Structure formats: C-alpha cells, structure tokens
Amino acid sequence: MRGTAAYRREMVRVITRRALRAIAEGRERADWPENPAMLWGPNHAHVTKPLPMMVHHEDDAAETIVTTVNGKVYSVQNAAHKTLLRMLRENIGLTGTKEGCAEGECGACTVLLDGAAVMACMVPAPRAHGAEIVTVEGLAQNGALHPIQQAFIEEGAVQCGYCTPGFLMSGASLLAEHPDPTPEQIRQSITGNLCRCTGYYTIVRAIEQAARRKNPAG
Fold first, then answer.
1. Predicted confidence band at 44 (pLDDT cuts at 50, 70, 90)?
2. Domains by residue range for the chain, with CATH
3. Which end of the chain is more exposed for a tag (fewer CB within 10 A), N or C?
C-alpha cells in the first residue's frame, strides 16, 4: 500500500503472472482456505432491509441520520460529512470504538453494521441511516459480559487496551459465524486487527476459551 509506483507495477506483473500460471495448471484454489472466517454476519453482508426510498445526506445541519445503535434509536444531525467512527464517538458519545490508523488497516474501530464487521473509519456516517449497529458497549447483555469479554479478562489478553475493542468485536463476530471455530478460522478472523503489545498469543487463547464457553460440547 505504501510502496513506490515502480514497486507496485513490478508486483502487479509478478502476481498476475503467478495467477495465470496457477489457472493454467488448475491449481488456482490450492491455497484457498476451507470455510474461511469472513465476519459477514448471518446475511453474508447482503442488505435484507433496504430503505424504502433514496435518501440524500448532503447538508450537515438539515439532514438527519436515523440509526439504531446497541438496540437504541438515535436521530443524529451534523454528521453527514463524518465517518461512522466520528459519528459514534462525537455525536452519540460511544467512545469505546477507537481510532487507530484512520486508513482501514489496524481494526481498532471495528463495529458490526447490519451484522457484518466493518472498520468504522472507512464507512461514511450516512450509511448508518436505517441500519443497525453494535459497538463494544453493546456486547454485554443484561449486566453479563459477552463470553469474549470474559475470556479476554481471564486470559490477560489486554495490555494497553487500545486495540481491544476491535478484537472483541471481531471475536464476537467470529463466534456468531463459527460457534466452534478452528485455529485457522480464529487467526483469519483477526487478520484485520493489529496489536503492538501482546504478540497475539493471549488473544488467540481468549477466543478459544470464549468458543468453549459458548459451545461446551465443541
């Protein structure tokens, strides 16, 4: 992503050549993971409840974004030109979701948008209109921590904590998609989340423990 133009051109040549050779030899799917963790949610990232009509959000003051966050309906103004991340933090006051890179690379801002895990820094706030969003504040239910939250505590999977909300959301999404995930699926699920403290070992163990809690017979 941050390579020079010359490097990118060379890599396009190399990768394209490799891909064509793999297709010619019939091994284009040889390294494709079986049943990968996509974090797309129950609807596979398809919109099942489209808006009844087209809505424009061009004027911050005049246009209202109506969205449901953690089960509560919010009517938000002055957010038409913001990202979903900024709207959640600045307009709704849910600061659990963090901004790390603001480029869709670190995963600290991961939330669930209509069931799919997304990086909120890359989503325009108006996309939330008519949608249902779950943030890290919405994982606990009726005063009880989500199994992924409890496992992170018990495994010591939190150090500085900045990346933790994103990992929790990715982990929760994985368990909803794959209640009894394989080690490969666990690692796939957090490839979009970066941590500079833990080395990922305790995080992986926490997700494994959370899976056992949700699926004791697994």
1. confident
2. 147-214 (1.10.150.120)
3. N
Helix, strand, coil: what percent of the chain each, to 5? 40, 10, 50
Give the end-to-end CA distance of the chain in Å, rounded to a whole number: 39
C-alpha torsion 191→194→199→200, nearest 10: -40
Q: What is the pLDDT of residues 160-217, one digit of tens each?
A: 999 999 999 999 999 999 999 999 999 999 999 999 997 899 999 999 999 998 776 5
> Tokens representing 35?
């049943």
- Alpha carbon distances (Å) from 40 to 35, 103, 193: 13, 20, 16
Contact 127, 113 (CB under 8 A): yes
pLDDT number for residue 59: 74
- Per the CB < 8 A criterion, the answer to whether 74 and 68 are in contact is yes
CA distance 87 to 121: 10
- Cα 77 → chain centroid: 25
* Strand bridging mode 116-119 / 132-134: unpaired
